[in-house]
Amino acid sequence: MSKRLTSFGPINSIARTEETHPLTWRLRDDGEPVWLDEYQQKNGYAAARKALTDMAQADIVQQVKDSGLKGRGGAGFPTGVKWGLMPADESLNIRYLLCNADEMEPNTWKDRMLMEQLPHLLVEGMLISARALKAYRGYIFLRGEYVDAARNLNRAIDEAKAAGLLGKNILGSGFDFELFVHTGAGRYICGEETALINSLEGRRANPRSKPPFPAAVGVWGKPTCVNNVETLCNVPAIVGNGIDWYKSLAREGSEDHGTKLMGFSGKVKNPGIWELPFGVTARELFEDYAGGMRDGFTLKAWQPGGAGTGFLLPEHLEAQMYAGGIGKVGTRMGTGLALAIDDSVNMVSLLRNMEEFFARESCGWCTPCRDGLPWSVKILRALELKQGTTEDIQTLLGLVNFLGPGKTFCAHAPGAVEPLGSAIKYFREEFEAGVVRAPVEPRPTVVETPI
Q: Which reactions does this protein catalyse (predicted)?
């Protein structure tokens, strides 16, 4: 099988065409960025021209809504519905489009690949989306460590400006749109859209109370829409090729439409990212693309989409990779980049490492998250050192409940405890092995004294 090697691992290059791989068909074989001239030769900005010169703004929104495009950042909220929340009042002429590129979910790097190698795809997606939303200014809120992505995006923006694809009166349409790259200071919580907005404004990155939602009161108090990188990169293909084509991409049985960047990492033979149709089975992703486990290792468990998703077992590999398919086996698809856990890994140690990350990245705004996550780390550390008590496992399960969905200010804590709950469910014996066993007191010797 022919492979193209990049710094992100092997990416399947067989039969990658515009009709079947809207996100990745333009990728170069050498892994270098696709700049403006080459991007336009590969039909780049054709969809933007169509959207700006031939389509009404409301028609773009309706087309994205009818396509069934859902957010690709992990939550999976329908994009067109989110766009429809923006106010129709023309007097509110100051509104913003924000791209959430704060990709700090452990084991996830799909957006990085798009931004580094196809920066103009994101620029075009934001241009069309801004037109639909009547947003005159956009920001790409980028993870600070993505230095190469920042450089490539800034160059792409400069190229687009010079070509009249950004700025004033774009393509003679009368539409103005400015786009900027804003690098974050390195907080996982900025992946939550309102924390991202606070950080962009120069405030502490705490989530905001909702309502009001960003569509009504967002950045600097103005109507704002926040979308993920991969989500926005789907927009040009939908506008250019139509709804029926987009819906035809997914496998039979999938309730989600289009394609998704999926991957596998861990001790697999062929770690990497691939653009695949929704509905492929996890087994196909694991065996046919990732090549299965390396020699000498056995698959013990796997996570379907980032550290904030629950663990699954090898028998769950038959699940289809879409939100509902993974939901049927008890967790969320998340970002779609899976992690293989091999049989040499101790689950208590793995969870201690994960919960340390989540505890450190908590903004500290609400009590359950601020106090509960460090508490879980303390207990897991004791179990790891085989100094736990008989009550510790029940306490951890209590924290899974108390920090669950709807009980904290944002989704950070529920995502943090989901893998913890699933690990105890499937590997409880490894947690019990960390409990100190009290030594059995020997019975006293009874000496019978003759009367």
A: a quinone + NADH + 5 H(+)(in) = a quinol + NAD(+) + 4 H(+)(out)
Residue 441: pLDDT band (50, 70, 90) is low
In terms of domains, do 191 and 83 share one?
yes
Which of 233, 248, 263 lies at the terminal end of a domain, its last residue? 248
At 343-369, the pLDDT tens digits run 999 999 999 999 999 999 999 989 999
What pTM value is reported for the model?
A: 0.91
Q: Indicate the residue type of 340.
A: A
Domains contained in the chain, number: 2
CATH code, domain with 68? 3.40.50.11540
* Pairing relationship of beta strands 272-277 and 299-303 according to DSSP bridges: unpaired
* Residue whose C-alpha is closest to residue 192's, from 43, 71, 357: 71
What value does the mean pLDDT of the chain take?
A: 91
Work out whether the CA dihedral 11, 15, 18, 19 comes out positive or negative.
negative
Helices (H), 134-201: 147-162, 193-200
Distance of CA 393 to the CA centre of its chain: 30
450 pLDDT more than 70: no
Task: Identify the three-state secondary structure at position 299.
Answer: strand
- Residue 3 confidence (pLDDT) above 80: no
Strands 96-101 and 137-142: parallel
Residue 68 structural domain? 33-248
Backbone angles phi, psi at 165, to 5 degrees: -95, -5
Q: Is residue 37 within 8 Å of residue 43, measured between CB atoms?
A: no
Could you read off the pLDDT of 96-126 as tens digits, one per residue? 999 999 999 988 999 999 999 999 999 999 9
CATH number for the domain including 365?
1.20.1440.230
Q: Which residues contact 73 (CB under 8 A, 6 or more apart)?
A: 100, 191, 228, 229, 230, 231, 335
pLDDT average, residue stretch 228-239: 97
Handedness of CA 291, 294, 296, 298 (dihedral sign): negative
Domain assignment present for residue 448? The answer is no
Does 1 score more than 70 pLDDT? no
